TrEMBL record:
Gene3D superfamilies linked: Spore Coat Polysaccharide Biosynthesis Protein SpsA, Chain A
Protein topology in the membrane: Single-pass membrane protein
Record GO biological process: determination of left/right symmetry; dolichol-linked oligosaccharide biosynthetic process
Domain named Glycosyltransferase 2-like: residues: 35-150
TM region(s), chain numbering: none
EC number(s) on file: 2.4.1.117
Pathway: Protein modification; protein glycosylation
Name of the encoding gene: ALG5
Protein name: dolichyl-phosphate beta-glucosyltransferase
UniProt main location, coarse: endoplasmic reticulum
Pfam family for this entry, one: Glycos_transf_2
Catalytic activity, as annotated: a di-trans,poly-cis-dolichyl phosphate + UDP-alpha-D-glucose = a di-trans,poly-cis-dolichyl beta-D-glucosyl phosphate + UDP
Keywords annotated in UniProt: Endoplasmic reticulum, Glycosyltransferase, Membrane, Signal-anchor, Transferase, Transmembrane, Transmembrane helix
Organism: Ailuropoda melanoleuca (Giant panda)
Length: 253
């Protein structure tokens, strides 16, 4: 069974009253329709815009459809600014059943933060959303439709992921908690996810969404391109040489 290497403090979150509670686990039966995981590193300035837009959409959708339930999980990836404080204000406003803040002791990279959020999620479907608000939340309905239009997974693959995420759907690119995954850095974790999905012949939907470039990106174009190329080569070589292996788990009864 996959597990996280957690600092003791990372096993808890503060509820809206400022009291410590144990984090939920993906191994428990889902109690929400949708979990939204928001990896955040030094995002005190950009996070409010994204959270206001996301929660506005989610609240309105819940009003129109009372069966729709959600949670937003902000994972503060070892930020040096007030990201946790900013995010916690939304926990106080909407309640810790809808908004939770997980603060990592050390920076783990975007992939590591997403993994932490997903392992603490309660949703039947799990979506990763960037903290910069570059995409708009109504587009989640396009992702849901794309997911529903996919052909069913082969039984063996479905069982494989059931053992990992209890049969929950991970919207399009959100296959993040695969226990086989090795890369958790900022640039290449999603590329490796696609490689893993193709290896197991898991259907992938490509959905067009509205995108707006937001100021404040932490990427440095030239050096980031070089690093991405290095990461891609590293991933390929590690799998080709057998240093990293993908294994399908045994079927469950």
């Amino acid at each position: 069974m996959p597990h996280l290497h957690q600092h003791e403090e990372e096993k808890f979150f503060l509820n809206a009253r400022g009291q410590k509670e144990t984090l939920p686990s993906i191994w428990d039966s889902p109690t929400k329709r949708l979990s939204v995981v928001v990896p955040s590193y030094n995002e005190e300035k950009r996070l409010p815009v994204m959270m206001d837009e996301a929660l506005g959409y989610l609240e309105e959708r819940q009003k129109q459809d009372p069966t729709f339930t959600y949670e937003v999980i902000v994972v503060n990836d070892g930020s040096k600014d007030q990201t946790s404080k900013v995010a916690f204000k939304y926990c106080q406003k909407y309640g810790s059943d809808k908004v939770r803040v997980i603060t990592l002791v050390k920076n783990r990279g975007k992939g590591g933060a997403i993994r932490m959020g997903i392992f603490s999620s309660r949703g039947e479907q799990i979506l990763m959303a960037d903290a910069d608000g570059a995409t708009k939340f109504p587009d989640v309905e396009k992702l849901e439709k794309g997911l529903n239009d996919l052909q069913p997974w082969p039984v063996s693959i479905r069982i494989y992921f059931c053992e990992t995420c209890q049969g929950r759907d991970l919207i399009t690119l959100c296959l993040f908690k695969n226990k086989n995954q090795y890369i958790f850095c900022f640039r290449a974790f999603d590329v490796e996810l696609l490689y893993i999905a193709q290896f197991f012949k898991i259907p992938i939907a490509e959905i067009a969404v509205n995108w707006t470039e937001i100021e404040g990106s932490k990427l440095v174009p030239f050096w980031s391109w070089l690093q991405m190329g290095k990461d891609l080569l590293f991933i390929r070589l590690r799998y080709l040489t057998g240093a990293w292996r993908l294994e399908q788990t045994k079927k469950m009864n």
